[in-house]
Amino acid sequence: ATPMSVMVGVGKAAEAGVLIRNGEALQSASTITTMILDKTGTITEGAPKVTDVLVANKLTREEVLMFAASIEAGSEHPLAMAIVESAKEQGIEPKKVTGFASIAGQGVEAKLDDSVLLFGNEKLMAKRGINIEAFIDKAQAFAEEAKTPMYFAVNNELAAVIAVADPIKSDSIEAIKRLQNSGIRVVMLTGDNRLTAKAIAEKVGISEYVAEVLPEDKAKKVVELQSDGEIVGMTGDGINDAPALAQANVGFAIGTGTDVAIESADITLMRGSLHGLADAIAVSKATLSNIR
Ligand code: ADP
Ligand code: MG
Q1: Among the four residues 21, 116, 187, 287, which has the most C-beta atoms within 10 Å?
Q2: φ, ψ for residue 265 (rounded to 5)?
């Protein structure tokens, strides 16, 4: 395309709230064959809320929320925000923990007084040899309702399951349909558990999804598709998504997402809506056809 037509295209896209960093991205957008969508914060609002707290008889609900909020105070994960917020709403004060560590894509750990606290997914519990049998059926039922269950252990013993729900953005279903209708293969990628991923994917009409992806493996999935001959678009909002955004043929960041994601992407969807994807591709097609 001529520099003039690219400038016009970039301007048109900007009117639709789509910020295009470079002319090359504008031209590549129309060639995308597969679009990868991150789940949390991309398809969903990324503002999960606590819906259920199930406790083993050792601790009270309040104690569990106090412990959970105390560890999560050190985390910037959307799940952590949900826990901290829920405790606050109920007037529960978090306490100061020591030895806080976050295990990417799995959870968090810390010590409070003499208690060792561990909070996260099934994988994390398995890794630490914690028996989750007592709650696994309940946790799976939550996941089938599209909620994310998190296990909480104190001193290596399961103490609770906390479930959170993250609503799907009101226009995600429509926006995904637009991509599919234009012949693009849509794949969802998430660190969340299989059952939750399946429930969300079904709700938004995506048949292909990969769940329980560790942060470092998101970019690998992009490479894999590229070696199959796909021209890959990647859309994400998190620090986790940054390597995949950089690896993709065209990276799209959610404007309300993290700075790292925005810096790693070619295009930013300022309105946070996935409609920006089909809008960008339409502008790209128009730009290229103008000069042919
Ligand atoms: P996503 O791709 O959905 O943003 P992540 O890779 O960040 O997911 O996390 C994957 C899973 O690891 C979460 O669904 C959750 O079960 C667990 N996890 C990650 N961070 C935390 C945390 N701060 N507290 C509890 N669980 C966590
Ligand atoms: Mg995300």
Answers
A1: 287
A2: -100, 160
